[in-house]
Amino acid sequence: MRKSVALAAILLLAVSAWIGSGLLLDPKPASAPSVAAGSAENTDSQLVRPPAVQVRTLVAVPVSRKLHLMGVTQPKRSVQLRAQTAGAVVVVHSDEGETLKVDDLVIRIDIREREARQRQAKALVAQRQAEYRAASELSKKKLSSKTAVAEAQALLEAAKASLQGIELEMRHTRVTAPFAGIIERRFVEIGDYLDVGDPVADLLDLSEVVISGQASERDIGQLHTGMPAQLTLSGGQQLTGTVTFIAHASDSATRTFRVEVTASNQNLGVASGMTAKISLNLGSTPGHRLTPAVLTLDDEGRVGVKIIDNSSRVRFLPVDLISDTPDGMWLGGLPDTIELITVGHEFVSAGQQVTVSRSVQ
Fold this sequence. Notes:
Blueprint: H1 2-25, H2 28-46, E1 52-59, E2 61-82, E3 87-92, E4 99-100, E5 105-109, H3 112-140, H4 146-172, E6 174-176, E7 181-186, E8 193-194, E9 199-215, H5 217-220, E10 228-233, E11 238-246, E12 257-264, E13 275-290, E14 296-297, E15 303-308, E16 314-318, E17 320-325, E18 328-332, E19 337-343, E20 355-358
Parallel strand pairs: 1-20
Antiparallel strand pairs: 1-19, 2-9, 2-13, 3-5, 3-8, 4-7, 5-6, 7-9, 9-12, 10-11, 10-13, 11-12, 13-18, 14-15, 15-16, 17-18
Helix pairs in contact: 3-4
């Protein structure tokens, strides 16, 4: 009895072991769910579509390209009049703000002491002339040597030079305008004593104004002297001028080139030191009018736009600003016809495949 029970128990254990080993060794039932899961993933990946963007076809039109420079008005000429001889101021003829013509008197320095020296110098010249004539006559009669004649001539020339110096000094007592202009500031009054080199007045010639701007290396090659320029002052006043100077060497600090524009100011309506914008027409170039909202930056920090090519892939194109108007920005550097991404450009990158739809506008 005990043997039969033990045998039955052994048989039961053997059958259980066999059944268990079959379940553990057969891998097929366990692999079925993995295959099914992989098929589901492949099906889902086939359903993912490229990101959607809206595009609009744009065609370039000719745009007038202008270069804008900022500058400050300056007088055509300016000078600080200074005393060329010493003395007391006895006449002040011109006031600040007064308009002068060439050679108009500004001030006069006391001349009385110089007049006395002039009379003395003239008398000495007359004496030396008489001595020279006498020496010449004696030399002709063999009564005087040639050396005496030469000495008399030298003394005569010295007397004449002294007289000329005094007369020049007398002319310098009159400080006059070297050109037509306006007395901007006067530094002296009657009774002031001036030494040589002391300032007398500032004189400005505002019949023309000169505005200086700084042009970049990229733009300087498109400029030339004689080209017309439009000037807009800070108060809205507009003038027409001409480029009169272009620097041949750049500023060492800014790497820009000085450009000067000269404009007529016969009515003296433009003062010195006013802010002015210089507008130079550089000709016509193809351009597209866009809103700033479509602009973006690439990884190199360049400003540009995103377009799509024939294979519906995104491309980044850098742009150049032609002009900025209230109606939008005119941009250059693009092909004549582009498919511009107007919606969704923030979410796609260059080289990416996209789904395209057309903008209404």
